[in-house]
Amino acid sequence: MYRSLLRMTALCSVLHLLVDGLCVCCLYLMASLLSMTHLVSVFLIYNILAFLTQPLTGLWADRMERKHWMLLVSVVLLTMAVLATSIVVNLGFSTWGVVVVAVLLGIGNSLFHVWGGKQVVIKTGNDIRALGTFVSTGAFGLAIGMVFFSWSLLYVVLLSVCFLSTLYMHLDLRTNAATVVDKAADCHFSKLFVVLSLVVLMLVVMLRSLVGESFTGGLSKSSGFILLIGLLSMLGKMAGGWLARSLGIVKMLLLVVLLAVLCWVFRSQGKMIILIGLFAVNCTMPVTLYLANVVLPQREGLAFGLLAAALIPGYLLAVFSLW
Q1: HSE of 177 in the Cβ direction (CA atoms, 13 Å)?
Q2: What is the DSSP string of 172-226?
Q3: 38 burial via Cβ count (<10 Å: 0-12, 13-18, 19+)
Q4: Mind giving me the DSSP string for 74-113?
């Protein structure tokens, strides 16, 4: 059973990398056609739909009886986005066409994330190591899409998404993989405690997004540096889950927060300090998601969606303050 859960988590994690890479690849292929104003608008539309709609798609995921319909709809929307990108770029530019691509990508991305997040939680019993692994790969997928965007990469990634999604559903339905019941599901909290806890966790996510973006926002980024940032962000999120499991959440948080603060204070000393700080900040990612699932038992989609939505305010604050 353990090997089956490991395989399913790995599939979800690879799909996360591919989906985020596909979305960025589409946007960058259209970027040369857009003015700076239109480019910023398209990226805002995509990010708003991809992240701020996740509480809504998360609610849908929690109510959905046939769990893989959300994955199917996501893959269909992403496929339509790739076709729309091809039409816009190769057959004639259209402002509305670009907006359609951004909308398809944003909704498709939103659906995938809450589906994948919920799958990992219910299959592993909210294992913090699995959570860290799943959420980590998107960062490297974004970096790959930004650096290597091309038509060949886009089509290969789309075919891979379709194949791995089909494989996941086949394996899940064939083995009828058992889900591990999260122990936190038996706990009962007052509504006030739940609301306050979620507000605190969302504020932490906003702060992490702001700090993480501020670490690297003012730096000139070569292709290699972008890939390094994506890789370290991924490794940080992965490591955070394992560190929390081995050291305990409190000790792990004290360690990485202290390291992040020191790196923030001495960030002017060089890129190495900045990269170490970025790694430390990302280590906290699986902890916030784990705790959100604890206070929202059996509402894994909503928990994932709320924290994903909280990323955007911090990101926008960092971006516009750097401007």
Answers
A1: 24
A2: HHHHTPPPPPPGGGG----HHHHHHHHHHHHHHHHHHHHHHHHHHHTS---HHHH
A3: middle
A4: HHHHHHHHHHHHHHHHHH---HHHHHHHHHHHHHHHHHHH
Strand, coil or helix: 149: coil
Distance of alpha carbon 88 from alpha carbon 110, whole angstroms: 23
Per-residue model confidence as pLDDT tens digits over 41-75: 898 999 999 999 999 999 999 998 887 899 999 99
218 burial (CB, 10 Å; 0-12 / 13-18 / 19+) is exposed
Nearest-10 Cα torsion for 229, 16, 181, 283: 0
Run of H or E including 51: none
Residues with Cβ < 8 Å from 111, sequence gap 6 or more? 57, 70, 71, 73, 74, 77
Tokens (6 digits) for 285: 């990612």
Whether pTM > 0.90 for this model: the answer is yes
Would you give the distance in Å from CA 71 to the centre of its chain?
15
What angle, rounded to 10 degrees, do the helices at 128-148 and 285-295 form?
Answer: 130
The rounded distance, in Å, linking the Cα atoms of 107 and 45 is: 10
